[in-house]
Specification:
Length: about 300
Amino acid sequence: MRDTRESRLLLVLLIAVAFALITVDIRGGQDSPVEGARRAAATVFGPIENGVSSAVNPVGDVISAVRDSGARRDRLALLEKENAALKAKLGSDDRNRSRLNQLDKMLKVAGEGQYGIKGAQVIAIGAAQSFSWTITIDVGANDGIKRDMTVLNGDGLVGRVTTVGPDASTVLLANDPDFTVGTRMEGSDELGFASGEGDGPLRVELLNGKAEVKKGDRLVTFGSQADKPFVPGVPVGVVSRVDPSGGGLTRTLYVTPYVNFTKLDIVGVVVEAPKKDPRDTVLPAKSKPTPTPTVTVTATPSANAPVNGQ
């Protein structure tokens, strides 16, 4: 359409009519004269609007989901990190609690035996020496450690120091086949020599072939001259089997050691021997057997039972 005087006049007229219709529609409300036209338009254009909305909304949902998924991933990652940190803390607390328990037991043993000890931590096992059962501990000459000192923990005899460096030492464990320690039986004072048998019980040869020994009897270290390599009174183990005497000069016992040689962490090196032999005072308290309850059954006379022979 060319821009003429008539076209401009027509545009002004159309605008005026539009304003007039809007005014009439607003004032008329639901009774508006143009309500029918509006409904007809809604009938025609409503499905088109719904289709466009259905096509556009999934796109918006996807965009929102992508944006929210990023936030969820960040939150999930944060939760996983917090859980990992909590598990690590719990694990660390458990380990520290275990070490404190080991230290408490060892200090109790040292106190009962009057041993002066230097605490140490196991930092290696089975080092490349010629021994088959050894550990390396984190104390050495700078800490006052010397060769042939007794090593114990909260359970009993661990071994003896064999090699000393400035800041670390090697300990030969009591279950090593090259290990031998003098022992004394609790109560009877029968003497013998215990030797390591690897991962089996200790083998003990009693000097008295006719000694009365039974399963469950306990042994401690007899001690050495000048207390090296062994101080007296350290718990060794419990008799688990006794070989028949056979009339020999010695008698063979098999002893389950108190110490678990595959689970060593905190140990103590005896740097000062007791002034007197603690004898059996360091042995753990014997567990009392659980009494067997006695059940008494009382017979109740039957209603039909005869009374006084009647």
